[in-house]
User: Which sequence fits this backbone?
């Protein structure tokens, strides 16, 4: 177990290092000197430019710039926004993150709470009308662009029925439609996974044994099949963190929610690269940590993984 | 139903059956999956539309009808008008092109890179494998859309940019699958025989390894095209895809969002087209999986 732990953590750290190099390189790909972005059209002398370069450390060799940058990032010093001058990027991210976290936690909890029972019932009543409905709706659900689903929800619930606000966060009601969109896209996938996972488990020998010893079917399903079926679900949920975060961006844009996704898009459009790089790095590190945590949790619940 | 198909029929082997190639048997199995055939027909229709949109579109996609802003559907304009008075149906037909170009080309780029990297890593092993595998891990650690948005903004959004960046960022999943396949293939007799015969590394990978990993790759690619079209439409929706006046479904949805409270019907048709197209590719992918690679189960790609 210890060796598994150590090797997974080391691999994770390596990937975080590579992600930081990749992000740094991407930010240096930007056509044009950051200086010219900073001063715009103003006429200044070469001497002044050199001064600014020195002040921002842009005259140092690339690896020194990288080390300084990575050091700042690690300490949470994301710099100041170029556009909203004077506002620390950290503050902007913290404000936006609370919206994104609320949105995703609620949506995620709801998706799991709905998808697991649906998947179990579909697997137990295989080929029933319910199973068929689940399979069809998941096949269709995966093909729907979530931002379009959002637009249609606005049309139905805001425009026609007038139940909920179309944009922004006037109160908790602003969360209802975005949460519904994320749930509808996650639900389909999770339910389908749970279904096939339970089906796999139901075909195992231990299920036959449980039935043979006369356990009521309810106990066979809930105690034996479902417990084992949950293992693969845990991994998939962990690995999907990256997709879930990607999905938030578009959904927040549709509903004009002041979350990380919208901050990201706005910063990209305003060429506010201090904010962009901080968000890119933050999200990717989050994904690596999520995957790592998943692996560790998985190794913890399933002893078979540790022996390799 | 899927399970029935994966079981090979126990019919007596006839000479004719033995002569039939693996691919044509795969095709026969594919044809039995009706939703897959329906998807294929729909895709063929889209290809025809994309090949000659001017022939099928009733009006030029940029023609503005005065006084018709957001006007509802009528007999001569079955899908109505957009926010500046253009015929929505004509723009939908022209938009087919962007969706298919990005879906097919970007997936093609990703497949070529992914197969090359995966086969090299798997066959050579050792340091090469370690380096390439970490590269794959790194790529997979980025939330895809975040990476694409950043790259599109940095490189300047255009149709070419979208194709290239999606191709360059989605190959990791192919590399993973191919590497795993190659790890077992390289121990097989025919590879050992080729090595013993003195074939070079390049020749073995190209002639002996790659043909044997094609069926899982085709399956993932056909399932992946739908995901790529979703990514493209999301980028266009955010204003980072093909630029106006080129009509794209995602771009039309962006207009739909801007005018959702005044002309809600603008947002309906492009979304339906994206969904149907993605669904069609996914169904074909499901059919191909049953036909070519029954071992694989739900492969779910990024969105």
Assistant:
């Amino acid at each position: 177990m210890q060796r598994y732990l150590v090797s997974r953590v080391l691999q994770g750290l390596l990937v975080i290092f590579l992600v930081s190099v990749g992000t740094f390189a991407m930010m240096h790909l930007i056509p044009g000197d950051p200086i010219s972005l900073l001063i715009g059209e103003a006429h200044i002398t070469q001497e002044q430019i050199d001064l600014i370069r020195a002040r921002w450390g842009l005259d140092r060799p690339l690896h020194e710039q990288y080390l300084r940058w990575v050091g700042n990032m690690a300490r949470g010093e994301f710099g100041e926004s170029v556009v909203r001058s004077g506002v620390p990027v950290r503050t902007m991210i913290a404000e936006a993150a609370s919206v994104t976290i609320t949105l995703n936690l609620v949506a995620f909890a709801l998706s799991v709470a709905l998808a697991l029972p649906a998947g179990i019932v579909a697997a137990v009543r295989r080929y029933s009308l319910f199973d068929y409905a689940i399979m069809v709706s998941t096949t269709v659900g995966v093909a729907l662009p979530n931002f379009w689903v959002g637009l249609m929800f606005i049309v139905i619930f805001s425009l026609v029925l007038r139940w909920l606000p179309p944009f922004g966060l006037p109160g908790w009601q602003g969360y209802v439609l975005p949460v519904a969109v994320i749930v509808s896209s996650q639900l389909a996938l999770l339910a389908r996974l749970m279904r096939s996972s339970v089906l796999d488990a139901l075909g195992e020998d231990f299920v036959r044994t449980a039935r043979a010893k006369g356990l009521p079917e309810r106990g066979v399903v809930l105690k034996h099949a479902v417990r084992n079926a949950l293992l693969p679900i845990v991994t998939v949920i962990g690995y999907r963190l990256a997709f879930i975060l990607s999905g938030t961006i578009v959904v927040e844009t549709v509903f004009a929610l002041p979350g990380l996704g919208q901050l990201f898009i706005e910063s990209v459009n305003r060429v506010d690269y201090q904010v962009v790089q901080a968000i890119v790095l933050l999200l990717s590190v989050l994904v690596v940590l999520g995957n790592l945590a998943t692996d560790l949790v998985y190794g913890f619940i399933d002893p078979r993984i540790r022996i390799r | 139903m899927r399970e029935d198909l994966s079981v090979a029929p126990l019919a007596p082997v006839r000479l004719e059956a033995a002569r039939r190639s693996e691919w044509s048997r795969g095709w026969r199995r594919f044809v039995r999956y009706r939703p897959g055939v329906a998807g294929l027909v729909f895709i063929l229709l889209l290809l025809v539309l994309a090949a000659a949109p001017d022939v099928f579109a009733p009006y030029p996609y940029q023609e503005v009808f005065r006084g018709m802003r957001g006007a509802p559907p009528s007999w001569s304009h079955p899908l109505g008008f957009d926010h500046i008075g253009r015929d929505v149906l004509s723009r939908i037909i022209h938009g087919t092109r962007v969706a298919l170009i990005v879906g097919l080309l970007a997936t093609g780029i990703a497949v070529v890179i992914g197969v090359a990297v995966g086969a090299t890593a798997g066959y050579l092993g050792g340091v090469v494998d370690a380096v390439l595998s970490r590269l794959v891990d790194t790529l997979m650690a980025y939330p895809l859309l975040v990476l694409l948005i950043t790259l599109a903004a940095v490189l300047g959004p255009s149709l070419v940019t979208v194709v290239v960046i999606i191709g360059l960022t989605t190959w990791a999943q192919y590399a993973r699958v191919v590497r795993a396949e190659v790890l077992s293939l390289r121990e097989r007799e025919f590879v050992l025989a080729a090595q013993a015969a003195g074939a070079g590394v390049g020749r073995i990978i190209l002639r002996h390894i790659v043909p044997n990993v094609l069926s899982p790759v085709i399956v993932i690619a056909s399932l992946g095209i739908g995901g790529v079209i979703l990514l493209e439409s999301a980028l266009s929706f955010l204003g980072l895809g093909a630029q106006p006046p080129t009509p794209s479904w995602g771009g039309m949805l962006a207009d739909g969002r801007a005018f959702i409270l005044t002309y809600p019907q603008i947002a309906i048709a492009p979304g339906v087209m994206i969904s149907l197209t993605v669904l069609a590719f996914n169904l074909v992918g499901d059919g191909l999986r049953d036909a070519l690679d029954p071992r694989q189960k739900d492969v779910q790609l990024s969105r």
Remarks:
- Chain A has a mean pLDDT of 80.
- Chain A has two domains: 2-74, 89-301.
- Chain A touches chain B through 53 residues (CB under 8 Å).
- The domain at 89-301 of chain A is CATH 1.10.3720.10 (MetI-like fold).
